[in-house]
Amino acid sequence: MKNQDCIFCKIVSGTIPSTKIFENEQVLGFKDLQPSAKNHYLFIHKHHTENVNDMVSTGPTQIAEIYAAIREVSIKEGLDQTGFRVVTNMGAHAGQTVFHTHFHLLGGEQLRGFGR
Fold it and tell me: Least enclosed by CB within 10 Å: which of 89, 97, 98, 111?
């Protein structure tokens, strides 16, 4: 299911270009336009959901499909050897600005803040 106004749905359909780093039938991975780390990629499921809670309610297997893609890319990029972070924001107060569930893969350098 696509949302006509969603920028990520437009990326999936090819209406808006992206620098793809992964694609299969269910998942698309692409470079973030405003990277927060040396390697900063976004992973989305091609089926539109608004946020991670919506995804868990309507298609919980989608999370496993996204994490399988993250695993593949992290190994290909060598991030599994140095470490990486996966983040998803849930709602405006958490910083979600595009309301299509997405996961950020960050790595390639020493990351600061967040957890100990």
Answer: 97
